[in-house]
Structures are given as C-alpha cells and as structure tokens.
Amino acid sequence: MKTLNRYVVRTAVVLALSAALPMSAHAAGAKEKESIKAQQAEIQSVRDQVQALVDRLNKLEAANAQLQQSNAQLQASNAQLAEQNTQLKTQGDKLEKAVTGAEKARDDQSDAIAKTAAKVAATDWASKIKITGDFRYRNESISRDVKTDQVRDRIRARFGFGAKINDQLSVDLRLATGGDDPRSPNQTIGASGTGMARRTIGLDQYYATWKPFAGTSVVLGRQPYPWFRPGQSLLNDGDINPEGVSVGYKNGDFFGSAFGFWLSEIGTAAVNPVTGAQTGALSKQGNGANYNGAQVGYRFHLGDITTLTAAAMYTNCGGCKGHQPFWISQGSAATVAQIGAAANGNSVDANGNLLYQFQTTEGSLELNSKLFDYLPVQVFANYAHNSGADNGQDTAYTGGFLVGKASDKGTWEAGYAYERLERDAYFGQFVDSDFGGGVTNTKGHIFRIGYAPKKNWTLNATYFLNNLNINGSADPVKSPHDESYKRLQLDFIVKY
Question: Residue 485: beta bridge partners?
Fold first, then answer.
C-alpha cells in the first residue's frame, strides 16, 4: 500500500510538469506569458496539494506502523495474560483441592481433639493423684540382763496417695501395717497368737491441707509432725502421727508452727487399791486430754555449703496429770500394772494415772555441711526440760552426727548419737519405741550405718547400746537400776 501511494503521486507530478514545459517553451505573447504564469501558479498549487498529500500519507504510514507495533504488543500481552489465566486457573484448582483437604483435615483434627478431650476429662483425676509408699523387712535381736534374748523378723508396709483438689486444697491418706499401737506399724512374723494369720492394715494418716496465703498452711486430721525435729533425735518417734489441727508458716529461712492435738478422752479406772485388780470398766468423762504448743525457727547460712537451723518450742499436755491419756493395748480390760506400763516410763500413781503435767520447753540445733566439698555431714543437738515435774527427773538431751547419705546408687552413711531421757522429761507416748525399749528413764548410744545398692533401695544397720532405769526402778527385781539393753536391727528398705 505504501509503495503504490508513492508511485501515484510521483506520476501525477511528472505529468503536470511535462504539460507545462512546452507551453513555456513556445509561448510568445504577453497573454500567453500571463497564461503561463497562471498555469505555473496552478501547477505550484497542485504541487503544494500533492506535497500535503505526501506528508499526510507519510504521517498515516507512521501511525499505521505504530498501530501495527501496538497491536503486536497487545497480542503478545494478550497471550501472556491468557497463559497467566491458565496458570491461575490451575493454581485455583489446586488451591480449591488444598482448601477442601484442609477443611477435611481440620474436621478430622477437631473430631480427634474432641475424642482426646473426652478421654482426658474422663481420666483427669489420675493426673491429680500422687502415690507413695515403702516396704521394710527387719531382722531384730534384743538382749537384756534379766530377760531371755529375743530374735524376730518384722515387716512394715505403707502405701499412701494424695489428691490435689485445687491450688489451695489437697487431701492425703496413707495405709500401714500394724494394729492400734500409734508408735509401731511393724508386724512380727509368727508372733504368739497370730501364726500364719493375715496382717492388719490401718489408717496411718488422713488429713487435708489448706493453703490460704503464700507460705501458710492449715492441716486438719491425722498428720505428720508439724514441728522441726533435728537430725536423728529420738525424742519423737517417727511413726507417731498426731490427730488434730496445725498451722504452719514459712517465709524464706524463717519458719513457725502452732498446733493442737487430741490425745484421748479423760478416763479413770475403778480398781481395788489393795490388790490392784480392776473392778470395773474404764469410764470416759470430760473434754479429753490434748497436746498443744508452738515452735519458731530460723535457718542461718554460714557460707556457701553450710547451714545452721535453730528452733525453740513449747508444748503443754492439757488434761494429762491425774489421768491416762495414752494408748493401752489391753483397752478397758487392762489391770493397774498394765496401765502403768502403758505410760512408757512416766511416773504414775497407784491407779495408773500420770503424776505430773508436761509443760516442756525444747531447743533444737542442726548443722549441715559437706566434707571435701562433696560428702554430706550433719551434726545435731536436742534439749528438753519439763517444768511440770518436780521430782528432779525432768531433763532430756540428745546429740550426734551423720556422715554421708545413703540415697543414690553406691552411696553410704554412718552415724552416732547419744541420748539421755529422764523419767518425766518428755511425754512418754511420743518417745522413740526402739531406744531403751520405748520408755523414758533411759540413756545410751546409737550407732548407724547404711548403704544404697540402687536408688530408693537401702540396707541399714542400727545398734542400740542403752541402760534402763537410770534414776532407779519401780521394780528392781524385774528391771534393776542401769540394766543393760542391747538391740540390733538389720533393715532392707525399698521406697517408691
């Protein structure tokens, strides 16, 4: 098209010029000159028109070329958009499939979560239960001056669990072998009158703990001792679990407690004052005997590895004097002699009632450190004085040490202690049942050694070298003054 247009224009121009030239060459007159000028002007006009047409054609050609280029670009862009549209459609299909799959997976996950939540809700109580326990097998031999030597095997099994009700309240319960004796969960194998009988299980602990404020706890029920006991002191038997209420407080290294425990209903026995024979059943009256008191203490830091814990305590045995606030194995069938023996060494009158009140002030010290920066060492002391007794037999003290700690595999411990426990220095129902046969009016040595072959499994040996009746005996024939008392205990202990 472009070439043809140019050819037409050029031809028209040549023809116009050719027609004009002969006229200009042969013209002779003025009119003819005038005519020639007119023709030349007309030719010039034609030329201008032709040039204008040429310019317009050139512009049209340029615009046409630009349009062709734009059209090519639009076609390329359209092809690119078509490809992108195809890709987007493919991606959309994939995304739709993915969304469908995700929705299905979400639904499946929701179903699984709902099923798991149902299972968790059904078994949530299990996560709030804590189970503990231990088993001990003991071989024991006892030798006294005026009695036949005794050798026996004994077992002790305890099983406990605690339930966390919420962040402030929990409940604990523990079962243990043994009868009613509050100081002994031991069962003697083959004991007289029991033979192959099944062993007795009883409620050893049952208490609720409420923590209303940080560092404060209120405990209700049959509970562990709420007061600090230093080292291996034997003034309190480890198996005693007093019944009542206690309030404890701890803030950093300071600690304290206050407590009130019921011992028994006040009871008196009707007896013949001449023969000592009981003439009637035990009668119960009054509000009962109680054991209450308070303790405060502080743990001092003496360097990086050494601490010293000091505590002071005061206790009062309310309703104890003139009554029998203690466990009597024979119950209401007990004779006066049996009732007196149940006092565990404390002074009694002719009817078996306690002669003195127990208003005891007690001090405790416990030093813990390490030898050679790795071997645990403990030194302790415990002192008690009963201001309620006026017979000069009102003081008790104990002290000793322990090196090592039999806990993890291959660890060991060895210790020694000495104790002197005068007749009415301490309430006899709480004193250790092994030292001196479990009675007051006793002194002597205690040697210990232990080894842990595995964690939570220990082998222990304890030897008591004691003297009974250090202040004289109520019955010097059956138990003379300073009678020798030897007791060896070999223990196999497993904890879980």
Answer: 144, 466
How many whole angstroms separate alpha carbon 465 and alpha carbon 140? 14
Q: Which stretch of 98-112, 289-303, 452-466 has the lowest confidence by average pLDDT? A: 98-112
Structure tokens of 2? Answer: 């472009």
Which residues on neighbouring strands pair with residue 260, listed in sequence order? 245, 292
For 433, residues 6+ apart whose C-beta sits below 8 A from its C-beta are 183, 184, 237, 239
**Helix, coil or strand: residue 194:** coil
Q: Where are the domains of the chain?
A: 2-90, 128-495
Q: Which of 366, 431, 429 is nearest to 396 (CA)?
A: 431
Percentage with pLDDT > 70 across the chain: 86
Task: Indicate the residue type of 437.
Answer: G
What number of other Cβ atoms are within 10 A of residue 29's Cβ? 8
Contact present, 168 and 211 (Cβ < 8 Å): yes
Gyration radius of the chain's alpha carbons: 54
Q: How confident is the model at residue 26 (pLDDT cuts 50, 70, 90)?
A: very low
Which range among 44-48, 219-223, 326-330 has the greatest average pLDDT? 219-223
Q: Out of 10-24, 183-197, 405-419, 445-459, pick the least confident.
A: 10-24
Instruction: Spell out a b/e string for 444-467, using b for 16 or more CB atoms within 10 Å of the CB, else e.
Output: bebebbbbbeeeeebebebebebb
Measured between alpha carbons, how far is residue 466 from residues 115, 214, 257, 420, 482 in Å?
65, 45, 33, 10, 9
In three-state secondary structure terms, 124 is helix
Instruction: Write the DSSP string, 95-109.
Output: HHHHHHHHHHHHHHH
CATH class, range 128-495: mainly beta
Question: ∠ CA 248-250-255 to the nearest 5 degrees?
Answer: 80
Residues 6+ apart with CB under 8 A from 236: 225, 229, 430, 431, 432
pLDDT digits (tens, 9 = 90+) for 108-126: 777 777 776 666 565 666 6
| Predicted TM-score (pTM) of this structure | 0.73
Q: Check residue 283 and give its pLDDT.
A: 46
